[in-house]
Design a protein that fits this description.
The protein has 284 residues and is α+β, with helices and mostly antiparallel strands. The chain has 9 helices and 11 strands. The strands form 3 sheets. Strands 4, 5, 6, 7, 8, 9 and 10 form a 7-stranded antiparallel beta sheet that branches. It has a two-stranded antiparallel sheet with strand order 1-2. Keywords: DNA-binding, Transcription, Transcription regulation.
Length: 284
């Protein structure tokens, strides 16, 4: 047997048959740990259905349910003539210097993100978020982003209720929050961000389908419009299969612009665009 195959004769832990956790879920989780903890390279073969039946002492339908669960998680591919093989983990690429547009960034790599909204609740924003938004009256939004059925990011976002009074989970399901802001007449421009490595607690591990203590990348920051109005304060925890691409530039001494000056120039540019558009309409 080559190193690319899982040994079908290797003893696996016994199943609990007390009626608590379904047998197929126990088998799924045992095989998942084999895949993620070894780790096995993409293309590695899993034991056949018959071998798993013998090892676990269960029916073929139970084994097929377990394998279907692994396929739903994006961990295996079921191939005709080869049985089940370990799938290549999807990798999410995002540009650190680009604000928002995560769907567009994924699409540029031929990928499609799916959004599941966990909650949209009216809250009093924590002090840091309230300062960034200019108000404590906020919506707290929790979402999980999926890539090929694999959870790759968990988002916790605060948005001013007075600017967006009618947010609902239905509006945000599989939708872009920044696109919704544009529909309400606000133009997200960006803002300061920071990235740090953190360990997954039990809640994050459950949402991102990873182990407690697994290193995650936490992106924190604020998104403002062209006039400096805070539109969102966010924390985004990225799973281990996220790559941040950075386009580094060399800045000559004395050429850098202060952030407040950049903000004023953007506001001036927007004002000029508006006045030019008004002049154009009046000349018709």
């Amino acid at each position: 047997m080559g190193p690319e195959d899982v040994d079908p004769q290797e003893p696996l832990p016994r199943l609990s048959r007390d009626g608590g956790i379904p047998l197929h879920a126990q088998i799924r989780d045992l095989l998942r740990r084999q895949i993620t903890d070894l780790p096995l390279p993409p293309g590695s073969s899993l034991p056949t259905e018959e071998e798993l039946q013998r090892q676990f002492g269960v029916s073929r339908s139970v084994v097929r349910q377990a394998l279907a669960g692994l396929a739903d998680l994006g961990l295996i591919r079921r191939q005709r003539g080869r049985g089940s093989v370990v799938a290549a983990a999807p990798v999410l690429h995002r540009q650190l210097q680009r604000a928002g547009g995560l769907d567009e960034q994924a699409a540029a790599h031929g990928q499609r993100l799916r959004t599941h909204v966990i909650a949209v609740e009216p809250v009093t924003a924590p002090p840091t978020a309230a300062e960034a938004l200019g108000t404590p009256r906020a919506w707290a939004i929790e979402r999980v982003r999926y890539l090929e059925q694999v959870p790759v990011a968990f988002m916790r976002t605060w948005v001013p209720r007075d600017l967006f009074p009618h947010l609902t989970p239905e509006l945000l399901e599989d939708a872009s929050l920044l696109a919704l802001m544009r529909e309400h007449g606000y133009r997200p421009e960006g803002g300061p961000r920071q990235v740090q490595a953190v360990a997954a607690d039990a809640g994050l591990a459950h949402k991102l389908n990873t182990a407690v203590g697994e290193p995650l990348l936490l992106l924190q920051g604020v998104t403002r419009d062209v006039l400096g109005q805070g539109l969102e304060w966010f924390n985004v925890w990225h799973g281990p299969d996220t790559v941040f691409d950075v386009d580094a530039q060399v800045t000559m001494p004395g050429t850098a612009l202060a952030p407040d000056r950049i903000q004023r120039l953007r506001a001036l540019a927007q004002q000029l665009e508006s006045e030019l558009a008004s002049l154009g309409n009046n000349s018709r």
